[in-house]
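<given_protein>
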Amino acid sequence: MKTHQLYFLLFILIGLCGCEKQLEEPVYSQLEPEGFLATEEGVNSLLNAAFAEGYINGYEGKNRVMLENWSTDIEWETDGAENRTASQVTNFTLDASLDWLFGTMWLRPYRAIRNANLLLDNIDKATISDEDKAVYVAEARFIRVLSYVHLYSWFGSVPLRTSSNDPLELPRAEDAVLRQFIADELLAVAKVLPDPGSEKNYGRPNKGAAMALLCKFYLNTKQWQKAADQAQALIDLNLYSLYANYENLFKVENERNSEFILVNPQSPQGAGMNYMNGAFPPGFASDPRTGLTMRSNWANWAAQYRLYDTFYNSFDDDDNRRNLILTRYINTQGATVSLLNNNNTRSFKYWPDANAIGNEHGNDMSEIRYADILLSRAEALNELNGPNQESIDLVNQIRQRAGLGAKPLTIGQFSSKEDFREHLLKERGWEFYAEVGIRREDLIRMDRFIASAHERGKTNAQDYHRFFPIPQAALDADPSLAQNEGY
């Protein structure tokens, strides 16, 4: 009996060894760890994954736009499931456990950084030309630094991860270190990235995008001379210009134009632009001014994205930028409904896409336009020298396009740097309302963010609200992080 048991155990051991041998199969997939980044296909795949996280699109892209705009003097929201989040942002009662903060504004940038770092750490394995390799490296560094620009704007200094081998727990970088890293990276990649129009695919990073991002970073960190110089360098490329018709600028058919510099591509076949779904008022059937008629393939959400009357009423009557704000509509019962005098007008800037699929419209979302570069130089020169003729001329270029050419600004209208700064804040509001994050940054930079909130009756607003709270989930995962002061 014991002999039979011995043979049986021996048989089992031999069988197990044999099974182990059979499981050691060769891997032929490009996803095999050692070979994945040895091919251009693998490099592109990982880079596209970084782009997908670093650029805004779909619901999370819309979430970011809303989180940045609902705390300003232009836009607010009511109704629907989004109101739980919107009320916290609008009333300055933000909770660090808010899911949008973690998913949209923390995880996505850091996933983009992780993917970029993985590529940068392994690019030497790729069997591609040195010239192509240099561009891939510059693109990865761009999407990484773009993510850090966003994180710095939202949270202040954050952990600086420059390698996939960095420890899991990492404290915030010193402010000066992160700022220098951002500037150095953008200066470096701008020398390598292709000229605008020469990139492999529309929307991929190019020299102009890097220069524009650096210009805005200098502006928002009040490095006035550097901001002015960087804006001039971008102007001197002679590759960008103002699109002639503001009202048509944001339509799908015109999205590839000479004014959009840093663009977040959107697609109705996947992660598209969701803004219009909340801009449509209840029961919207048509716009009597333009004849725009609701289509069956467009969604009309319960969430309502509204503009303040004080903002709408601040426009000059001849300003054609106001035309993209809906003030009345015809509802499904055939009645004309006014949206005025109830903080209820709507931005129709992202003109609905006829080919939208459900919630997804195809309008690309521009993060930096040429108009922003002109106004950035005008502002930087004013901060350096006070009201000056060049700044006046730059603003008048914007006003000319807006239909205000017969009402140009003159230097005599402004008695001080502060006086002209106040006008620039208004001008930027008229030009960039409902766009990606611009208004919040403008109010903070011009020291009007908290004061403006108090003027709207938001008494909870405190200086520390200039930054969002570090998400609680991030704090729980990394004890070395510290919450923003005040939260």
